[in-house]
Design brief:
Layout (H helix, E strand, L loop, with lengths): L11 E5 L4 H12 L3 E6 L10 E4 L5 H15 L4 E4 L14 H29 L3 E6 L3 H4 L4 H20 L5 E8 L12 H10 L8 H12 L10 E4 L5
Parallel strand pairs: 1-2, 1-4, 2-3, 4-5, 5-6, 6-7
Helix pairs in contact: 1-7, 2-3, 3-5
Family: Belongs to the short-chain dehydrogenases/reductases (SDR) family.
Protein name: Short-chain dehydrogenase
Pfam families: adh_short_C2
Length: about 240
């Protein structure tokens, strides 16, 4: 894990899944907004704008807690958390086994729960406000042929609404962005026949860009959205 102390004035922003397409775009957008961004992933490859690149499997609750313990010691409690870590597999319902299904939920939903809990405990103890932005998906609203993925993102939306209310008295806002199909390496795993169907269904007539999702995250993470919590912002070209 990289190091380097940051003063309380520059409390870090943590982006999980920081080596992915949306994660890299979010890292760049938050850094441009003045945040010291800590990009977290199971592998390296974060945007160069990251203040530091940390390696952790946040799908493991104990690893998530250890990550935030390290961050607190090295950088201080984060003020912003973007729960972007996620996995996607194009898999038929009957091809799932218990282990593969559980792994999707552990990473896509469990990591958001564990990381938010680890950060919020520290913010509450320090008496400081914060902002959490979860990366959900339009699949969490309308369902998906990839059932585990859709279920996990629906859970992220429910988690966002619940935590947004329960953490509001502590000054911690929790919101989500629900992207549609975004032109990233993860989207390239969608079967070609379905990709054509999705594109035909998008009123704006194109797939989204990672930078467009990042712009929504930047808004929800920053002071301009100070009266917004327990909300989900769709970035899907009207697909919903």
């Amino acid at each position: 894990m990289g190091g380097g102390h940051v003063t309380e004035q520059h409390a870090p922003a943590v982006v999980t899944g920081g080596a992915g397409g949306i994660g890299r775009a979010v890292t760049a957008a938050l850094a441009e907004a003045g945040h010291h961004v800590l990009a977290v992933d199971i592998t390296t490859g974060a945007d160069p704008a990251a203040h530091a690149e940390l390696v952790a499997d946040v799908g493991d609750p104990s690893a998530a807690e250890e990550l935030f313990r390290h961050i607190e010691q090295e950088y201080g409690p984060p003020s912003v958390l973007v729960n972007n870590a996620g996995i996607y597999e194009a898999r038929d319902f009957f091809d799932y086994d218990a282990e593969s299904y559980r792994r999707v939920l552990d990473v896509n939903t469990g990591s958001a729960f564990s990381c938010t809990q680890s950060m919020a405990r520290r913010l509450v103890a320090a008496g400081r406000p914060g902002s959490v932005v979860n990366i959900a998906s339009i699949s969490g609203r309308v369902g998906s042929p990839d059932t585990a993925y859709g279920a996990s993102k629906g859970a992220v939306i429910a988690l966002t609404r619940g935590l947004g209310r329960s953490l509001a008295p502590h000054g911690i806002r929790v919101n989500a962005v629900a992207p549609g199909v975004i032109d990233t390496p993860m989207a390239a795993r969608i079967p070609a026949d379905r990709t054509t169907g999705y594109l035909d269904s998008v009123p704006l007539g194109r797939f989204g860009r990672a930078a467009e999702v990042a712009a929504a995250v930047r808004y929800l993470a920053g002071p301009d959205s100070g009266y917004v919590t327990a909300s989900v912002l769709d970035v899907d070209g009207g697909l919903h």
